[in-house]
Amino acid sequence: MTELHGVAPSILAADFARLGDQVGEVLAAGARVIHVDIMDGHFVPPLTMGPLVVSALADRVHDAGALIDVHMMIERPERQISEFAKAGADNITFHAEATPHVHYAIGAIKDAGCTAGVAICPATPVRVLAEVAADLDLALCMTVNPGWGGQPFIPASPGKIERLRALIGAGPALEVDGGIDTSTAGACSQAGATVFVAGTALFGAPDPAAAYREIAAAAHTPTVSASIPPSTSIAGRSPSNSRRRRTLPGDPGRKAWPPQPGFTVMQSTRSTSSTSSPTTVAGVPGFRASPARQPASRTALSA
Ligand code: DX5
Ligand code: ZN
Q1: How far is ligand 1, taken at its centre, from the CA of residue 299, in Å?
Q2: Whole-Å CA distances, 144 to 55, 96, 201, 223
Q3: How far apart, in Å, do the first and last CA atoms of the chain sit?
């Protein structure tokens, strides 16, 4: 059974003009988790992609025996769970800071047939997950502030990863996201991380497949043989039913944040063969982290 484990290429840093091919490259190199960043322009300033992109990639990823790992950086994530599940997400992670209904959202993700993860921003203490630790399939420790690729790894992160691992126990996957490369993956692994999201260091490299293998080696995670045939299936999946539950294994250089005008969304060192241009972020004086919300019943939330 495929597990949510190892290096997870983040397509945020891919060349969207040839997204399918880029995902195919890293799948061929052995990647078995494809990370998809969803941003709504509210929880974080940028807008990125939605269920249509997940749907467009789903068959290709699943046919390779890999998983789609959706990272929702959106307000009120509980309203979008069913759309992403229908589109082909295997794991859905949302931010604890983005909803007062963390327990409800975890249940809704599992009800939709996906595994459930909860993410926390760098300033959020690990204890916010204490009451739901037993319900988690995955905990995501942000190692940069969410919203942009290409930021430097926050040096204090390994200590936080250790505290998070101690809180959740050995069972759930522990994902790290932001600034992961060959110089940071090892420390995260030693601290207890098991899933390593890599965007710029991977798709920004001249050879993403080679970068995947190097980061995987740095994280001391076994690379999956690229010889696995495309027809390899995941236990529980059939062509007509791709939705199913899966088990999971058990400040130097820091930029000001929110980024100043001109900050590049995608790292400027991306492959020179890329035809796309980095996008700049406008000033973000109106950025708000989390508006007041009204309590609502589960039924009302899902409406
Ligand atoms: C940032 C996203 C990350 C991003 C990581 O908010 O959640 O997944 O793609 O990019 P890098 O690896 O460039 O830090
Ligand atoms: Zn992410």
Answers
A1: 33
A2: 27, 16, 14, 25
A3: 34
Angle between helices 19-28 and 51-63 (to 10 degrees): 30
Top mutation candidate among 153, 197, 269, 287 for ligand 1, by most atoms within 8 Å of CB: 197
pLDDT in the model for residue 32? 98
Partners of residue 94 on adjacent β-strands: 72, 118
CA distance 32 to 222: 11
pLDDT digits (tens, 9 = 90+) for 180-239: 999 999 999 999 999 999 999 999 999 999 999 999 999 985 544 433 333 333 333 333
pLDDT in tens, 243-268: 443 333 433 332 332 333 333 333 33
Task: Establish whether residue 143 lines the binding site of ligand 1, counting it when its CB lies within 6 angstroms of any ligand atom.
Answer: no
Which domains are assigned to the chain? 6-218 (3.20.20.70), 268-303 (no CATH)
3-state secondary structure 62-97: HHCCCEEEEEEECCCHHHCHHHHHHHCCCEEEEEHH
| Angle at 177 (CA atoms; ends 89, 27), nearest 5 degrees | 50
- CA-based nearest residue to 126, from 154, 166, 86, 71: 166
pLDDT at 235 (0 to 100): 33
User: Within 10 A of 125 (CB to CB), how many other CB atoms are there?
Assistant: 12
Any catalytic annotation for residue 177?
Answer: yes
